[in-house]
Write a structure and sequence with these properties.
mainly alpha; 85% helix
């Protein structure tokens, strides 16, 4: 009975964190659209150049260190918790101060390496958000160890909400008052610091409410705590960091290589800004995988240690199949509607071909997130981390070789190759440490068949709508109507075929977040099919 209650509490907390994570990722993908519309491709380039620096430390803090601290607190006696939290706070604060000093004092050098010295003030403003690493990590880790996910979930949503509000309000003020676009970038960086501060204040309120005094504090050795904290935080962060690290590679290479290949400075800025339009599309595309990682993967870790109940293999197969299904559908769909999506969201259809290639990172990233998280649940972290580093090296080499030849299309190709290398390596490693078959051949047959049917319908409808039905309207409004009709039509065709195939059963749909409606839809499709046979 006690175990059942613990599992229910765990599931409730997992669902809450899943919803919060979904909202945060959704906001992160969506806000870039109005921001780009306000500041244009050049302003978007300015922001995206510096964003990876802040995002890397934000992910390492709010995700990596928080999980590491919660794991340590779970492993040690409760009387040692105060000592562990004190060591963690001092250690993470020390790291954050070092990073702040390097980022603030080295801002001019970093900006020079990126080929744009005007990015110097943005890096200095962004450095202040790093100072919030310690309180965010320690407080989130403390609540997660107690399985009290509500404060963590609320803090995540509050932080992102404040950040997005400051970014968009700042961009509007800058544009309406005719200030430099670099000022809009500085305000966007300031948004990260203000959002982080809001999250810290909220977590402190919850912490003070539930604080219990302990008369005795058992001492613990600092070095083993620091060593494990570093290893765990880096290993669990790597899969979430990979997309941001690829963006960091692009910050140092794309603009410089475009300029060195003979492109004019402002044209190179705009091309980098157009290329960066792919980021929110990929982030939106991997929302399903992110939600599954938060919800299903912890179940894999828990059930792999139990002899009774649902087997871990079932959750692992389900996570892989659902993630690949939606990721593949999203990438295929975007391939045929990208010109219209591009214009609808970002005002022009420029470089739609490069963005189509970029969007296929959705497939690789979704599989990467699922597999690395499952391997981490099994305690396998070293090889996945090495594979992710290998992928980054491939991305760097790919940019240097392909950008001078193909421009930003080359950078998109390099990103796909880098991620593909990681995923292929993970699949081979997974087969060695946990030899399970993720899906039968019939799954892939139905999936590709559904994607093909969707492609034919979406492509045909898009051509008809763009050239005939909505041709008399303004270009952007016509593109919007084409997008708004083609996507639901494609989704309907795809899900109808998937529902009839039952490659994911109704019971399996019920397990995943927000899968209840899909289960009901599938039941309706198949009940109609049975009725017709009678």
């Amino acid at each position: 009975m006690n175990n059942e209650g613990t599992m229910k509490t765990f599931m409730k907390g997992a669902v809450l964190l899943t919803i919060a994570g979904f909202i945060v990722k959704l906001l992160s993908a969506i806000y870039r659209v109005p921001f780009q519309n306000l500041v244009g491709d050049q302003g978007f380039y300015i922001y995206q150049q510096v964003y990876p620096f802040v995002a890397i430390f934000g992910i390492w803090t709010s995700y990596g260190f928080a999980i590491a601290i919660s794991k340590l607190l779970a492993d040690y006696n409760s009387q040692s918790h105060r000592a562990i939290l004190r060591i963690a706070a001092i250690y993470v604060a020390g790291i954050s101060v070092v990073i702040f000093v390097v980022m603030f004092s080295g801002a001019e050098l970093l900006a020079g390496w990126m080929g744009d010295l005007q990015l110097n003030p943005l890096l200095k403003v962004g450095a202040f958000s790093v100072l919030l690493m310690a309180p965010l990590a320690v407080l989130k880790g403390y609540f997660q160890s107690a399985n009290n996910m509500a404060p963590v979930a609320y803090a995540q949503v509050l932080e992102q909400g404040i950040r997005v509000t400051v970014i968009l309000a700042g961009a509007w003020l800058v544009v309406s008052n005719g200030f430099s676009l670099y000022v809009a970038g500085q305000l966007a960086m300031l948004g990260a610091a203000i959002g982080g501060l809001g999250a810290v204040i909220l977590l402190l309120v919850y912490f003070n409410r539930g604080l219990k005094t302990q008369n005795q504090m058992l001492p613990v050795r600092a070095w083993p705590i620091i060593k494990e904290m570093t290893a765990v935080s880096l290993s669990v962060s790597m899969s979430s960091l990979i997309l941001v690290l690829f963006q960091l590679v692009d910050s140092f290479t794309v603009f410089r290589l475009l300029e060195e290949s003979g492109m004019g400075r402002f044209v190179a800025m705009e091309q980098k800004g157009i290329y960066d339009r792919g980021q929110p599309l990929v982030q939106f595309g991997i929302l399903i995988a992110t939600s599954l990682t938060l919800a299903i993967v912890p179940l894999v870790a828990r059930t792999s240690k139990k002899d009774s109940g649902r087997p871990a293999e079932m959750y692992a197969r389900l996570a892989f199949r659902v993630s690949f299904l939606f990721a593949f559908a999203a990438a295929v769909g975007l391939t045929f509607v990208m010109p219209y999506v591009n214009e609808t969201l970002f005002q022009t259809r420029e470089r739609s071909g490069a963005l189509i290639i970029f969007s296929w990172q959705i497939v690789w990233m979704s599989l990467l997130l699922i597999m690395t998280a499952m391997l981490h649940g099994l305690g396998k972290v070293r090889v996945p981390a090495l594979l992710l580093v290998t992928g980054m090296v491939v991305k760097v080499i790919g940019n240097w070789l392909l950008l001078p030849v193909w421009g930003v299309t080359g950078a998109a190709v390099a990103g796909n190759i880098g991620l593909m290398v990681v995923v292929m390596g993970l699949l081979l490693y997974f087969k060695r440490v946990w030899p399970i078959t993720f899906a039968p051949l019939s799954y892939y047959g139905w999936l590709f068949g559904a994607a093909l049917a969707m492609s034919v319908v979406v492509f045909g409808w898009s051509i008809l709508a763009d050239n005939y039905l909505f041709d008399h309207l303004s270009s952007r409004f016509g593109a919007f109507l084409t997008t708004a009709t083609a996507i639901p039509l494609g989704a309907l065709i795809f899900m109808a075929i998937i529902g009839k195939s039952r490659i994911i059963t109704e019971k399996e749909w019920y397990i995943i977040p927000f899968g209840r409606k899909l289960a009901k839809l599938q039941l309706a499709i198949n009940s109609k099919k049975k009725g017709e046979k009678r």
